[in-house]
Amino acid sequence: MRPLFHSSSLCVFARPWLISRHLSYSQQLQASVLPFQRRRMASTPMVQPRVLPTSGFELLNSIEHFEEESLPDYLKERYYPVSLGEVLNSRYQVITKLGFGASSTVWLCRDLHQDRHLILKVHVRSRRQLPEVQISKHLKALHENHVGQKYVRLVLDSFEIEGPHGVHPCILYPPAGIDILDYMQCLEGVHYLRISFE
């Protein structure tokens, strides 16, 4: 049996706007205290992982297909079996699942070194380099002060984890909770991408 969380504080699927609103607010808060945080980051100890609840929710029948398991080409061995509360790369604690696809699952996680929320994409097992990582490295090396850069979601970190059936590439992104004003300014991001590859 697998847990399906119904707690109001954990149910992301029922209230995705709540996560977006919370993350937008926390991003604003982080921006206002970021200079202070950078000064003290070297001396700040790692935040302790949260203990997630083990009761108070329904259990799913493990025989029934759920989410990515219902994809036509699904093979259990291709996906890393992420557990809620698991700490990956000795730094990122998995909080809840946000989505899935044919090539990855997507999770909200907490960075225990900087006490912030990030988006973790755990890819199916693979030994190949992910193009997102190479593109992000290229873009970070160019035009670092371009006004449009903040509207392009770049990879913050990447690593690999060993699963029961192979190696899984992982990518971390900042949360993408943006409001209408940010959408209106996305053209600056398009301009940044265009001049970066000219």
Question: What does this protein structure show overall?
Answer:
With 198 residues, this protein is an alpha+beta fold. The protein has one domain (2-128, 154-177): Phosphorylase Kinase, domain 1. Helices cover 26% and strands 24% of the residues. It has helices spanning 16-40, 131-141, 180-184, 186-196; strands at 2-4, 58-60, 87-88, 92-100, 104-111, 116-123, 157-163, 166-173. A six-stranded antiparallel β-sheet has the order 3-4-5-6-8-7, covered by helices on one side. A two-stranded antiparallel ribbon has the order 1-2. The longest helix has 25 residues, at 16-40. 12% of the residues are buried. Mean pLDDT is 75; it is low at 1-43. One of its GO terms (cellular component) is nucleus.
What features would you highlight for this structure?
single chain, 198 residues, alpha+beta, Phosphorylase Kinase, domain 1, six-stranded antiparallel beta sheet, two-stranded antiparallel ribbon, 4 helices, disordered N terminus
Taking all Cα atoms into account, the compactness measure Rg is 18 Å
CATH architecture verdict = 2-Layer Sandwich
| Shape assignment | globular
Write the element-wise H/E pattern from the N-terminal end onward. EHEEEEEHEEHH
CATH class: Alpha Beta
CATH superfamily grouping = Phosphorylase Kinase, domain 1
The CATH topology:
Phosphorylase Kinase, domain 1
Q: Could you report the average pLDDT, rounded to the nearest whole number?
A: 75
In total, how many beta strands?
A: 8
- State the strand order across the main sheet: 3-4-5-6-8-7
> Major sheet, described briefly?
6 strands, antiparallel
How many domains, as an integer? 1
Question: Structural class given helices, strands, pairing?
Answer: alpha+beta
Q: What is the CA-CA span between the terminal residues?
A: 52 Å
Uncertain regions spanning at least 5 consecutive residues: 1-43
**Number of helical regions:** 4
The percentage helix is 25-40%
Please state roughly what percent of the residues sit in beta strands, choosing from under 5%, 5-15%, 15-25%, 25-35%, 35-45% or over 45%: 15-25%
EC number: 2.7.11.1
Keywords: ATP-binding, Kinase, Nucleotide-binding, Serine/threonine-protein kinase, Transferase
Catalytic activity: L-threonyl-[protein] + ATP = O-phospho-L-threonyl-[protein] + ADP + H(+); L-seryl-[protein] + ATP = O-phospho-L-seryl-[protein] + ADP + H(+)
GO molecular function, one term: protein serine/threonine kinase activity
